[in-house]
Write a structure and sequence with these properties.
Part of the tripartite ATP-independent periplasmic (TRAP) transport system. This is TRAP transporter large permease protein. It comes from Litoreibacter halocynthiae. It is found in: Cell inner membrane. By secondary structure, the protein is mainly α. The chain is built from 22 helices and no strands. The longest helix is centred in the last third of the chain and has 35 residues. The radius of gyration is 22 Å and the shape is globular.
């Protein structure tokens, strides 16, 4: 049996192990170790490469970016910045068609610029936005679907943990990935807003329990307005954090790691000033930061080990030759790759997909002349769609579990997210066809 055949078998075994419930890190380690052992017929070499990878895999100052951005996101989450952002967006947009849905998208867009994790956005806005939307006459399932659909913005709008992980796996600049994510992220947010308004106008009963009563309530809204100084006070912390972190990063004043440190310190000041961080919460934040960071770093070590096994098997070069020999151009390759990612998104979580596919696909894309930053945005967009598609749909399940409403089923939330999936597919197509949407700021 050739090493190439062994490589393909090992990838199939890896996917099978993950589907059977094995942790992705352990599956990567096991498959890579066995692969190197079998291909080279040398167990000592497999142990030696594991030892080298364990050290060199994360022995870089750049990897401090991960715990620092995780810490910043958790501190922001406990300081109720998400709730305040939604309240201001609600005040400004409530007279608009589907105003609270648009407010949820707007708040998620701003919140994503300081958290970088979709699950955090889904959990925060389920508690904040869904009850408020339901109280104003929106269907509970549509409200939950709006939160789940717009929460994926956290994976694309920088700083994003998925962009960081992709940058590490593909060995491209993390700062460059953040810049590449700006325009597609704004396109996605704008598409969501246009879709919500359009769906409300064309299919009001899909959105509202009683469209006539809701329309009359919006036209006759005489509720007391939030004073401007209160709105300003609620927005200042998050706006300053965004300017501090992303402004310093994009102007070149901070490296990504320094931006993470400054952001974490700024988030700590916000949490302390709001008196939302006692000893117990601080301990929980630090513990969660350690758990998440160690998990991600362990995954990156495992992915590096897996990538070395693939190189020994000659898999990336063989697949690249196969793709080029089949007559597919760069666009055809991107199409097939996106379809594969979408299918994998139905059965695997986003991090697992990146860890399995990027070490294989990134060298192929680079060999075909595709910009790796552009390729990364396509990858993350396709992976994001998996957060909303059954049967896995982790964002949908997060919203459902956080909402804990027996009258709103998982199936209803999945149905309500379908328009969001449609918008994401359109944006994915536009970004694939027009690379400048991702490379405009590079």
């Amino acid at each position: 049996m050739t090493t190439l055949a062994i490589g393909f078998i090992l990838i199939a075994v890896l996917v099978g192990l993950v589907l059977l419930g094995m942790q992705i890190a352990y599956a990567l380690f096991a498959v890579a170790f066995v692969g190197i052992w079998v291909i080279r017929d040398n167990m000592d070499l497999a142990f030696k490469m594991l030892e080298l990878t364990a050290y060199s895999g994360i022995a870089d100052y750049l990897f401090a970016t991960i715990p620092l951005f995780v810490l910043m996101g958790l501190l922001v989450s406990v300081s109720n910045v998400g709730r305040d952002t939604f309240e201001v967006a609600e005040e400004l947009l409530r007279r608009m068609i589907c105003g609270l849905g648009v407010a949820t998208v707007a708040a998620n867009t701003i919140f994503a610029a300081v958290t970088g994790v979709s699950i955090a956005s889904a959990a925060v806005f389920t508690r904040v936005a869904v009850p408020e939307m339901t109280r104003h006459g929106y269907r509970p399932a549509f409200s939950a679907g709006t939160v789940a659909g717009s929460s994926v913005l956290g994976m694309l709008i920088p700083p994003s943990l998925l962009l960081i992980i992709y940058g590490v796996l593909a060995e491209v600049s993390i700062g460059g990935m953040f810049l590449a994510g700006i325009l597609p992220g704004l396109m996605l947010a704008g598409g969501f807003v246009a879709m919500l308004v359009g769906v409300t106008v064309l299919f009001p009963r899909f959105v509202l329990m009683d469209p006539d009563a809701t329309k009359a309530r919006r036209q006759d809204l005489n509720a007391e307005k939030m004073p401007p100084f209160i709105m300003l006070a609620k927005l200042v912390p998050i706006v300053l954090l965004v300017i501090l972190v992303l402004g310093g990063l994009y102007t070149g004043y901070f490296t990504p790691t320094e931006a993470g440190g400054i952001g974490a310190f700024g988030a700590l000041i916000v949490a302390v000033s709001r008196r939302s961080l006692d000893r117990k919460r601080l301990w929980e934040v630090m513990k969660q930061t350690a758990i998440i960071s160690v998990s991600i770093l362990l995954l990156l070590i495992a992915a590096s080990f897996y990538s070395r096994m693939l190189s020994i098997a000659g898999l990336p070069n063989a697949i690249a030759n196969l793709v080029q020999g089949s007559g597919f151009g760069p666009l055809g390759f991107l199409f097939l790759y996106a379809v594969l990612i979408l299918l994998m998104g139905m059965i695997l979580d986003s991090t697992s997909i990146l860890l399995i596919m990027v070490p294989i696909a990134a060298p192929i894309a680079q060999g075909m002349g595709i910009d790796l930053s552009h390729f990364g945005i396509i990858t993350v967009l396709a992976v994001e769609i998996g957060l909303l598609t059954p049967p896995f749909g982790i964002s949908v399940f997060t919203v459902h579990n956080t909402l804990n409403d027996p009258n709103v089923s998982v199936e209803q939330i999945f149905a309500a997210t379908l328009p969001f999936v449609g918008v994401m597919l359109i944006v994915l197509l536009v970004v694939a066809v027009f690379p400048t949407t991702a490379t405009a700021f590079l």
